[in-house]
Design brief:
With about 210 residues, this protein is α/β, with parallel strands linked by helices. It has one domain (about 5-200): NAD(P)-binding Rossmann-like Domain (Rossmann fold, 3-Layer(aba) Sandwich). Helices cover about 35% and strands about 15% of the residues. It contains seven helices and seven strands. The protein has helices spanning about 5-10, 25-35, 65-75, 85-90, 105-115, 150-160, 185-200, and strands at about 15-20, 40, 80, 100, 120-125, 135-140, 165-170. The protein has a seven-stranded mixed β-sheet, with helices on both faces. The chain is globular.
């Protein structure tokens, strides 16, 4: 009822989702519940106790591959237990996908992915160490602010003479700690924002 004839665009979409941790797993759940079923998820990690505060289904699958565990809950997805790195990115035919959703942490992979897929990329940066989901924003990579990780990505892209635009989800809230630590109220909101941006792009509303 909300999408009208555009709902068919969601049903026919083909998505590549890289990283299914605190951001990616919530994004996946949102995508599937919105009617998008042709999703390839890629992650090399397994669940451990530290994931339980923010990652979907983690408490049920300690020690298991994240992508294989998620496939049990979302049986239409294609699961690849693979590290996203330059070599793997070079092996992928991105023309097969309508959108590439980046929820990985590795800056080297994020940089290379951006250079290869910017036309269809939605990328998340800086969801950890924060508590206020109302500080989440969506902009191009060049208009992110208040996030040191985003600033580092901009710096490295400029070094590579990359000047294209792509969509980034970020938070302007300053990091609250130096150590690792995440709050699902923020990481989950990042995942929902990523799903929303995907839906808007697929339906031509953005």
């Amino acid at each position: 009822m909300l999408f009208g004839d555009d709902f068919a665009k969601l049903q026919n979409a083909k998505i590549l989702l890289l990283g299914v941790g605190g951001v990616g797993s919530v994004c996946l759940d949102c995508l599937v519940r919105t009617g998008i079923t042709d999703i390839t998820i890629v992650d090399c990690d397994t669940y451990d106790e530290t994931n339980q505060n923010r990652q979907m289904w983690s408490e049920l699958h300690l020690g298991e591959s994240k992508v294989e565990a998620l496939k049990q809950h979302y049986p239409t997805v294609k699961a690849l237990h693979i590290r996203v790195d330059k070599e793997w990115i070079d092996s992928v035919d991105f023309d097969e996908y309508d959108l590439v959703l980046d929820a990985i942490d590795d800056i080297h992979a994020k940089l290379y992915l951006a250079q290869k897929t910017y036309k269809k990329l939605i990328s998340a940066v800086g969801s950890a160490k924060r508590l206020d989901p109302t500080k989440i924003e969506v902009a191009t990579i060049w208009k992110t602010h208040g996030d040191r990780f985003g600033a580092k990505i901009r710096y490295e892209l400029k070094k590579r003479k990359f000047d294209k635009n792509y969509t980034v989800i970020f938070s302007s809230e300053p990091a609250l700690i130096k150590e690792k630590g995440s709050f699902m109220g923020v990481t989950g909101a990042f995942g929902f924002a990523m799903c929303s941006q995907a839906v808007l792009k697929l339906t031509g509303k953005k």
